[in-house]
Structure formats: structure tokens, C-alpha cells
């Protein structure tokens, strides 16, 4: 599976596997460098997925009395 096609959960599991291998100390140096590079790519992918999810979260819009009046997309300007 291409990295761009991975879900957040798949990328996170792959990143956890990379970390586990690196922490074991049993990986040769060259492989460690390759694993580290892959881990960084996976970390960036996970962050991108999290940022996209945050952008979709709706925030509560409060009326003059401070009570919630509805919602609007997280990234839209406040009314």
C-alpha cells in the first residue's frame, strides 16, 4: 500500500512498528537510517491527517447571551 493511501490508523500502526524496531537496538545502522526516514514520513502523514480532521471539527457559536446558537465549520470566519 502506498503511504498516501494509508488511513491514519494504518500509518500510526506502521509508525509504532518503526519505533519498536528502532528502540530494540537490534537493527543495523543502515537499516536504522532507512527506518528513521520512513518514520519521519509516517509522522508527517499522521500530522497531516490530524490537521485535516481538526479543520472539520465544528465550533460552537455563542449568541449575545452566551448560550450556544448553532455551529459553524472550524475554519470559517466567526459571524
Question: What attributes does this structure have?
Answer:
2 strands; alpha+beta; Helix Hairpins; 79 residues; 2 helices; two-stranded antiparallel sheet
Could you explain the architecture of this structure?
The protein is α+β, with helices and mostly antiparallel strands. It has one domain (3-73): Helix Hairpins. 57% of the residues lie in helices and 14% in strands. The chain is built from two helices and two strands. The chain has helices at residues 8-24, 29-56; strands spanning 58-62, 68-73. A two-stranded antiparallel sheet has the order 1-2. Helix 1 (8-24) packs antiparallel against helix 2 (29-56). The model has no long low-confidence stretch (mean pLDDT 84).
Strand order of the largest sheet: 1-2
Mean pLDDT: 84
Radius of gyration: 20 Å
Q: At CATH's second level, what is the architecture?
A: Orthogonal Bundle
Helix/strand order: HHEE
Q: DSSP strand (E) fraction?
A: 5-15%
CATH topology: Helix Hairpins
Say how many strands there are: 2
Shape: elongated
Report the biggest beta sheet as strand number plus sense, adding barrel if it closes: 2 strands, antiparallel
Low-pLDDT stretches: none
Distance between the ends: 43 Å
Number of H- or I-type helical stretches? 2
In short:
Helices cover about 55% and strands about 15% of the residues.
List the helices and strands and how they pair.
Layout (H helix, E strand, L loop, with lengths): L7 H17 L4 H28 L1 E5 L5 E6 L6
Antiparallel strand pairs: 1-2
Helix pairs in contact: 1-2
Amino acid at each position: 500500500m502506498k503511504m498516501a493511501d494509508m488511513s491514519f490508523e494504518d500509518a500510526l500502526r506502521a509508525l509504532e512498528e518503526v519505533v519498536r524496531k528502532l528502540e530494540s537496538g537490534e537493527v543495523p545502522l543502515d537499516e536504522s537510517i532507512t527506518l528513521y526516514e520512513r518514520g519521519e514520513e509516517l509522522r508527517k502523514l499522521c500530522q497531516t491527517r490530524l490537521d485535516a480532521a481538526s479543520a472539520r471539527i465544528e465550533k460552537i457559536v455563542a449568541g449575545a447571551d452566551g448560550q450556544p446558537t448553532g455551529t459553524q465549520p472550524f475554519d470559517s470566519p466567526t459571524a
